[in-house]
Here is the input.
Amino acid sequence: MMRVFSKAGNAVCVLLVAITFASATFASADTQVGGIITSNTTWTVANSPYLISSTVQISLGVVLVVEPGVEIYGSSNRIQVWGEFRAIGNQDLPIILNQVQIMPGSLYGNDPQNGLIRIEFARIYSGSLYTGYGSAVYGSIILRDSHLEDMPMTYLWYPIGDCYIERNVFVNSGSISVGLSGNKKVYIRNNVFYQPTTYAIDNWASYDTSETIAEFNSFLSTDRVAIMLPGGGYDSADILAINNYWGTTDPTVIESMIYDKNDDYSSANYVQYVPFLTEPHPETPISDFNQAPSSDCGFEQVVFDEVTLDGSASNDTDGSIVSYYWTLQHNTNPANNANATGVSPTVTGLSNGFYDVCLTVTDDLGATDIDCSLVAAAGSCFFTGSTMYVEFIVAATVRGSKGRSYGEVLVTVSDDYGKPVAGAAVTGTFTGDFNETSSGVTDSNGVAVINTTTEFKKPLYTFCVHNVVKDPLVYVSDDNIKNCETN
Here is the structure.
């Protein structure tokens, strides 16, 4: 929401909502696929969607390429990979995989089992990806920039190459279960794990110099285990889990999200998780189930050379705000720009002019919102005035004796910068029921209290200022907003 100001200075709140409806366009007929693919093949957008009617097998040395924007519906049928399954979409045209079971192919005997599953920028629903079935299979996987939902365990059984699982969002899905040997590495980095059905990552074997590296991930469900080294398993199991965000900064909660030798002495190791991140890593996706926070920078203000900002009305309905960042941009001179952090910071040293003040709030999952307003600054309030004038006169009465009342006026004196003048001697005349000249001296608020010496029952009077004296200021009666006042 951006506040816009009219020429009269009134704030007008304008809420602009843009709603875009995207409709999917399907080919006039589905393309049904199944059987053995024996030569390099491309599944195109023109022939999408693809319906898998029977198991698809990608032969050794063969690449099946899936173009960006292609949709594949599996009805729980399989794609078995001896060669390479290469499904690389993009941010605007993700690949859709719905109820497709994708797994390395398996042969007994001399089969090298070096199938590669490579998926990027995809949305994967149900089905399975590299799940264990029958005899486990080697192969390898690259999975990046994708959203996976309602998926079972991904079972990496001694892959023959390094595996990369990066910048994905896993929702309501099983663990990434890893067993390694040799010098192979599995890199699980910058992923979001939300409500895993078992745990997010487990390692049950890590022989030789192999490693399972879990880093820069966001584990957002603090009520369940994120990292698992199962008890009673292989004595070499291990996971390096430093530099992750755990949805909390409380070490006790983090430790409850880790199952290792602290929980079962038959587990192979203790998981190293320190240092940990206090907020999501900037390269980790902002989960699409997260509702963005709402920024509220408060109302417009007129100030001298400092302003106290107020972002306390900002809120996050499904989490918490972890950052308040303010920018103050001077309308004519960028050298006067300023910034601040915190819910209600005080910014000093403002120069004369208008500032566009914007508050950016960031929630605990990295989503942001911005709200802007206007501050009008007069600059330093320590200018020395040269003239003074009467700004207000209030005429009243105060109780005297025997039902009578005195006349009493309050006279406010300001200088030519609008600041109150203290110590000014104000002289004026009461006429009407009273007929006398009296005086008073202004206090720190610039207000002089002047009373009559006589009293009357229900007096009516008019008071007029004759003179104001305070060196070195010059009294300019022509500047008076009020000269006289009647009770």
Observations:
- The chain has three domains: 30-259, 293-377, 387-486.
